[in-house]
Structure formats: structure tokens, C-alpha cells
Specification:
homodimer; 357 residues; alpha+beta; elongated; disordered N terminus; DNA-binding
Chain lengths: 357, 357
DNA sequence: GTTTAGCACTCGAAGAGTAGGAGTGCTAAT
DNA sequence: ATTAGCACTCCTACTCTTCGAGTGCTAAAC
């Protein structure tokens, strides 16, 4: 009666009850009833009291009933409250830490492989789908750019970026450009672009980089255009998804329909990539770059993922260059466990990236 | 009685019956009974006669009963007979041809992308999982090899192969090698290896390619070793799988268990790659390079694919360099349709590869 | 000898009915 | 505010039954 309406704060006991409901449902996959709650957690009250509390929690939208005479399951909002203020994230056991460290193989030469490794490990450890976004390279700058002739009409643009990443692209060029001409162009472009962040490089920047007048203009223009597309392509987002088949092992997706929708959506990886990127954008606006992004159930704006949760963390290639790594699992998951797993994988990944340099 | 026992040849009517059973089962997904057969195909005999024929076909192992009082379904052997001698493969309709051609986008610069495109198209058209093996490059030879310094301790080995493929690998090198030293090494190695097929290049070949004595031997040896690993890596097989989620749409995999096994196996792509490569090896031994490889049900030596069929064709990058493209679908598929689809995709891919050069 | 009609039998799929039980909300007493 | 008690709900699992498609076999017909 005397309580505020708009920003209803849960009292301590309600929090306890919600906490217990989430824990129980996550571990048993059964709607939890007042009786089960009394039996498994030591509330000093009767089941009737709990029933009242649960009725209120339901009215407030934290839990819901699958049908009239069943126990309660957490709603999206319930999970959200759990994640935001109820759970405690503790460290992984030494064995788990070891398993992860052993699994992320550092005997690779490219960051990309390291990231893939970390992603595979994450999926294996959690049993869910894991994903990694390639580093967002727009803030990184060119340290080298070479255009190599491959054969008449084809050249390879090789770019080395400040984050230590190497990108390249085969491009088509006019047939009759000579090696020397190409070398000149390559040097001029490199000289002009070195040190520039990718997102500041426009077609104009590239076109104005060569002042040599010996090369016929149309030829030059085409080469420069191709170089530009190569640079833009280096900046493109890639996503790497791993462990889709593991979703079929989960009771949450035992109904073919759900599984189908889920895998269908995940198969369009560019869509997922776009979404993750958007999420990242939101987080950055709010200045939450270093923390986790957690989306639960309906909060995910992707069809087919209504029963999933999405958790990602940020790894760093360098100060200004980062990507995301995380998982997509069922809403009904051990959030604190999974978060610490992601956290540890992220940390391990960051360390091994540093070592690689 | 008077017939041969060992190589039992089916008489015409038995062939007709088997043909009809396969067709019917493929289109309805219901075990086929004698009555259904009479109704839908015009056999000029009674159902009783067909029952006798079917009993014999069963005794010979071409068809089988899911349970005592059900119709018959083709056995692996039945499908095999159907594929080998009963079906006729006809051309795709112009619309289908167009759909495929339109889908394989040729506005890409690298063969790899073209192959990916073709694979995606194939999955979309058939509704099954499609796959492509990267070209087997061992027979192709180096036309260029450059080692570029990226930063102290890191270099990029770029290889251009006769098939028009570009491969590269970042390798670690001793910190204190200078640009000039590296340039010398790179040129010497390139000169020595150009024109050699990949499978003839050994560590020794690479090590003996530099005769320059100015570079301290341990340094040189390390660089050459890394170059060698890069070359070997270029020769590695890659597989590209597409459309796994489509398998969940098929009634054949409606039981979660089957689907799980299947996707589980497919998730280990290197295993699938190994198997396809082995198949290709067998086909080459028998001199069947240019035709299709078809494996049905138990013929596939991969766990979880007992209810699948595997069909691949060969695409060519150049005379001696080829890879495979094909599908994995349920045993119960329209073989002739699928084969013509694969065939047409393969042809289209081959043409577009030529254009790309 | 091959084909066919007839028939008894098998066995899975589908539906109806039933019992059980976990859980709820409400009321009245503590 | 808490709790015991109770009537009520409704899902789950199980059994029982029916239905029908399909089979193999036998004996007659061609």
C-alpha cells in the first residue's frame, strides 16, 4: 500500500523467491511449484506463503505459468532481474580454467586462427553456439599496402594494418599495365595512405594519392578504384559461428520446430553479424564497452531467437580495435557460470593475442 | 530355376516394379504396398502377382519391410540398382537452368568465392546440404612466391599458383632479419621453386634453394622452414559445407536423434573432407574421374550418415587441378533430378571459372 | 506354369477414456 | 502476516480399442 508503484522494488523475500525459482528451473527444466521450493530451499515459511509471494511475482511480470495448474517459470523480465541484481558471478574452478587454456592453441600464426580457436573452445565448454566477430578495423590504420601483379589482368592488394592483421584481395586490373607502372602506383598509394585509419579512407583519398602523370588516366583510375574496394573489404565485418549442432542436444530445443527456426536464422550469418554489431553500437553509446552485452529472449530482435539468450564480451586486438566473442544459448541457462566462462575465454584470448605480437 | 544364381539379373517386370517402388516411395515417403502400385502405375497384372514379385525382390535384397504389415521401401541395394541401371537422367528445365545461372554470381574476383556461390546455389536448389572441396593443388605449380616483411618478427608468404589461385600465410621469422636479406631469400626461393608442382616440393627442395652465404645459417634455415610450411599449407584440403539447417526441414530427419547425429558428424568438417578425398582417390584409381561419385546409405563410411546419400561431381580449375562439388541428402531423394542439378551447377561453375581467367 | 481371387492374420497409427498427481487460489483460522 | 485445508484445474501417461493397409498362403482359373 505504502509502496511506490512505478518503480516497484522487490523486497528481500521476493528476491530470494525469484532467485530460487530461476535456479531451480534452470537445473531441473521443470516449472517450479511452491512445494518443490519449500523442499529444496530452506525458506522459513509455509508453501501457502510462498504461493502468495509467487502470485505477486507473477502479477509483477517476473514469472509466469505455462498453464493453469503448473508451477512457475521465469519470464524474460525475471531472468533480467536475476542477471542484473540477483546472481553472483564467481570464478571458474582451476580445472575449468586449465581446460580452457589448454584448448586455446597458441601455436598459430594469425590472430584469426586464435579467435577461431577461442570460439570453438567456448562452444565446447558451454555446450551452446558460440560466435566471434572479426575485429572492427575501421579505427586501425594502414602500415603497409602493396599491389602485386599476379598475371596479366590480375593483381593482389596486400594490406597490413596497425592491429597486426593482414588482409588481401585479388582484384582485376587492365591487362596491359606493366610491372613498373604498378610498382609506382603501389608505392605512391602506400606512401599516401600509411597511417590513415581505414574509416577515413575514401575513394577520393585513394584517387588523389597518385600524382604521377605518366600513366594513362583511365588505367590509373581503375586500379585505384580496385585498391579502394580492397581497402573497404578489409573493413568488412565477419562473423564466425561454431557449434550449431550442439543446440539439438538441449532439451529446450527438443521440438523440431524451434530448432529449425533457430538454425535457420543462424545460417544467415551476415544477419547475425549485423545484429551483434548494432548491439555493440548501443553499448558503446552508453559507455559500457568493457562489460558484457546480455540480451534475453524477446530482447533479441532476431526471428527464431525468442527462446534464446545472447551474451557477448569484447576482446581487444589493440587499444582502439576490438571484436566480440560470446554465445547464443537457451534462455534457461546458468547465467553466472556461462558469464564466467565467457569472461575467462576472453581474458585468455586477450593474453594470447598479446603474446602473438 | 534355369536362371543364374550368382549374378541374378532382374527380369524386365521386376525392374519395372522396383522402379515404381522407388519412385513412389521417394515422392510419398510412405512404404509402398501392392495395391498402391496397381492404382498409380499401370501394371497389367493383379495385386497378387505384384505381391509375388515383391516377395522375390525382397528375397533378393532390393526392398525391405519396415514391419511385418507395412508396404516395402527400397533397400540400399535397391537404390543402387535404381541409380545404376533403372533411372534416366534428363535435362533441367530452362527455368531451373536459369535460376541456377542467375544465382551463381560471377561478379567476384576470386575462384574461391565463385565456388562458395555455386555451393550455396546447389543447397538452395536441392534443399539439401551441399559441399565443395577446395581444389586439390598438389599438381599445380608455383608461378610466384614472395616473402614480404610485415613487422619485425613477422612476414607474409604470398604464393601464386598455376591454377590462378593465390594463397598466403603469415609466418614468424627471426626479429633481426633485414629487409634486404629477406628480399634476397625471397628471390632465390622464388627462382628455385617456380614451375615446380607443389607435391614435389619438400623441405630439402626449399632449403637448397638459397645459396647465398652472407646470411647466418640458423636464421636462413628458420625462414626457409617457415616458407616450407606456408607452401604445404597451401596444399591443404579445405571443405565448405552449406545449408546444414535445411536437413531439419526434411521428414527423413524429423526424429531429433537422426538429425543430431547427422549434424554432429557434419560439424567435423575435416573428417568429411578426408572422406570425400578418399572417395575421389578411389574413383581416380578406377579411372572414373569425370563422372559422379554416388554413395548410398551404408556405403558411406561416416557415422551418422547411414540414412544419407552422397553425390559429388568434379569441377576443374585447370587440366590437372580439380575439386569436388556435391550434396549430402537423405537416401530417399529424387536421384535423377538431383544429379542433373549437380551436373548443371558443375558445368556452370566450370564455365564461370574459365571466364574469370 | 503363371496368374488371380479370396481370406485369415499381423501390426502400427490414431483416438478415447481414465487415473494420478502436481499445483493453484481461496477461505478461514491462527 | 502467515498458515492449514480444500476444492478445482489441467497436463501426463497409460491402457484399450478400433481401423485399415498390407501381407502371405491356398486353391482355383487361365
Amino acid at each position: 500500500m505504502g509502496k511506490g508503484r512505478r518503480v516497484m522494488q522487490l523486497d528481500d523475500r521476493k528476491k530470494q523467491v525469484l532467485h530460487a525459482i530461476v535456479d531451480d528451473y534452470v537445473s531441473t527444466n521443470e516449472p517450479v511449484g511452491s512445494k518443490a521450493l519449500i523442499e529444496r530451499y530452506d525458506f522459513r515459511v509455509s508453501s501457502a506463503t510462498l504461493r502468495n509471494e509467487m502470485a505477486e511475482l507473477e502479477k509483477l511480470g517476473y514469472i509466469e505459468k505455462p498453464h493453469t495448474s503448473a508451477g512457475r517459470i521465469p519470464s524474460d523480465r525475471g531472468y533480467r532481474e536475476y542477471v542484473d541484481s540477483l546472481m553472483t558471478v564467481d570464478q571458474l574452478s582451476p580445472e575449468e580454467q586449465l581446460a580452457i587454456q589448454a584448448n586455446i592453441d597458441e601455436s598459430v600464426d594469425e590472430v584469426t586462427d586464435l579467435i577461431k580457436n577461442a570460439t570453438q573452445t567456448l562452444s565446447k565448454q558451454t555446450g551452446f553456439v558460440s560466435l566471434a566477430m572479426s575485429p572492427r578495423l575501421r579505427k586501425s590504420f594502414l602500415t603497409q599496402l602493396k599491389i602485386l601483379m599476379i598475371e596479366p589482368g590480375k593483381a593482389l592488394v596486400v594490406m597490413v594494418l596497425s592491429a597486426g592483421v593482414v588482409k588481401d584481395k585479388v582484384v582485376r586490373i587492365p591487362n596491359f599495365i606493366t610491372d613498373e607502372q604498378m610498382f609506382k602506383i603501389s608505392s605512391a598509394v602506400e606512401k599516401h595512405l600509411t597511417g590513415k585509419p581505414l574509416d577515413e579512407i575514401t575513394l577520393v583519398t585513394v584517387e588523389t594519392s597518385v600524382t604521377d602523370t605518366e600513366i594513362p588516366n583511365p588505367l590509373l583510375k581503375q586500379v585505384l578504384y580496385e585498391a579502394y574496394t580492397a581497402i573497404k573489404q578489409a573493413d568488412e565485418l565477419n562473423i564466425y559461428l561454431e557449434g550449431e549442432h550442439r543446440m539439438l542436444e538441449l532439451p529446450d530445443f527438443a521440438s523440431l520446430g524451434r530448432a529449425r527456426e533457430l538454425l535457420g536464422t543462424l545460417s544467415d550469418s551476415s544477419m547475425v553479424a549485423g545484429y551483434v554489431n548494432e548491439m555493440q553500437g548501443c553499448a558503446e553509446e552508453k559507455g559500457q564497452e568493457d562489460t558484457y552485452m546480455i540480451r534475453i529472449g524477446q530482447e533479441i530482435a532476431l526471428e527464431g531467437l525468442e527462446d534464446c539468450s545472447f551474451i557477448t564480451a569484447t576482446y581487444n586486438l589493440s587499444d582502439s580495435v576490438s571484436g566480440n566473442i560470446g554465445i547464443i544459448g537457451p534462455k534457461r541457462m546458468e547465467y553466472s557460470k556461462v558469464i564466467s566462462q565467457i569472461d575467462f575465454v576472453k581474458k585468455t584470448l586477450n593474453e594470447k593475442i598479446k603474446k602473438l605480437k
